[in-house]
Amino acid sequence: MSKKDLIIKYGLKGTPNSGLIMATFGFFVGFAAVSLYGPVAKNFNNVMHMSGVLLGLLVAAPNLTGSLLRIPFGAWVDRVGGKKPMLTLLFLSVIGMAGLTLVLYFYYPEKISIKMYPIIFIFGLLSGCGIATFSVGIPQTSYWFPQKKQGFALGTYAGLGNTAPGIFGIILPVILGAIGLTGAYASWFLFLLTGTIIYLFFANDAYYFQLIQKGVSREEAIKISKELGQELFPSGKVIESLKISAKVPKTWGLVVLYFISFGGFLALTAWFPTYWIELHNVGIRQAGLLMAFGFSLLASFIRVYGGFLSDKIGGEKTAIISYSIVFIGAFILVFTNQFIIALIGEITISIGMGIANAAVFKLVPKYVPNAPGGASGWVGGLGAFGGFVVPPLLGIFVDLFGKIGYAKGFIVYMLLAVIGIVISVLLKKSSQGV
């Protein structure tokens, strides 16, 4: 029976290309929540009068759920396919955005005070669920493509989806200037709702999962799917993979490295707009542009080069170089309040983080060959947790030193970079025994 006949017989939908497009689309729609509060934090702070720590917690709120939910939702894909987990995360994000929009509509600006901080924080947590779509889209995409096309498919997925925070960092302040804070979030809510509906109607799981949902046995579903070109299938050993990888000490070293690079990336995507506004007195729109082009988009795109460099000279050497670049960028930012020099520091730290993000995942299968999937879950989920932990630490320096604390806070990144260099050197020394 031909492929076309099999598809018609079983009523299967979608193609690998459409699967990639919709997975990337769903990730893009949800991942934008990284920029939920960062570009407009000043607007909230003007009416809520938050301390530096509370401000840091608020801009980081979406990253808490966006990181910790990656592990269970990524594992869920192996059982039911990607569509249901992706829709669940997007739906939770829609609830968060709806709640935030309603709070702003009824209370902003006159009736909002620090007393409303908990509810705004909670809606930030819900909105941040969309950030966790990353771990859903990776296996969702992988199941659609044969091994020889995995690099292209996953590179396209991660590269394009990762641009969402940068793009929204540009768009949100523009909309803010045109229709105000409430209108800006109402527009975001409509975008998120529309995107979720589009995903609902046009996304499809890989053929294996569609067949399972139609009642076909696992063995038969695998047989039919192989005839249609699918090569990867769930092993049903996700929990076991997590357990095995958790017992490997180097897994936790990689978690720390990704906590610094990707967690640090998420943290600064949310924090940089506030940094530019408060320390350098630029407008909200200009701060969004500086964050997007000087940091977020640059780090996303240079991650591709980081993968190439890791293949060429090894992940350990690449990591040592990249964390050294992060240290240099942070050093520059600590000791300057001059705009041009600070911009050079931002670009430098962006390059280091982008390259490091690729280097870490180059090392995962090398050091945890028996359970790379489980290790990726720990590294991706707990590593992204840095996006929640770091901004409040930066806020402490603001509370201690006032305005100049926005610069001094990058001491945190200097220390993190040193930790990253030390771990990378230790991994390199041990690599001959791997």
UniProtKB/TrEMBL annotation:
Record carries keyword ATP-binding: no
Localization (cell): Membrane
Family per similarity comment: Belongs to the major facilitator superfamily. Nitrate/nitrite porter (TC 2.A.1.8) family.
Protein name per the record: Nitrate/nitrite extrusion protein
InterPro entries documented for this protein: MFS (IPR011701), MFS_dom (IPR020846), MFS_trans_sf (IPR036259), NO3_transporter (IPR044772)
Protein transport among keywords: no
GO BP field: nitrate assimilation
A GO MF label: nitrate transmembrane transporter activity
Upper taxonomic lineage: Bacteria, Pseudomonadati, Deferribacterota, Deferribacteres, Deferribacterales
Cross-referenced SUPFAM superfamilies: MFS general substrate transporter
Domain of life according to the entry: Bacteria
Listed GO CC annotations: membrane
Membrane topology reported for the UniProt record: Multi-pass membrane protein
Domain Major facilitator superfamily (MFS) profile intervals: 19-432
Major localization listed first in the record, in broad terms: membrane
Regions crossing the membrane: 20-40, 52-77, 89-108, 114-136, 157-179, 185-209, 252-272, 284-306, 318-335, 341-364, 376-398, 410-427
Keywords recorded for this protein, A-Z: Membrane, Nitrate assimilation, Transmembrane, Transmembrane helix
Record Gene3D superfamilies: MFS general substrate transporter like domains
Classification via PROSITE patterns: MFS (PS50850)
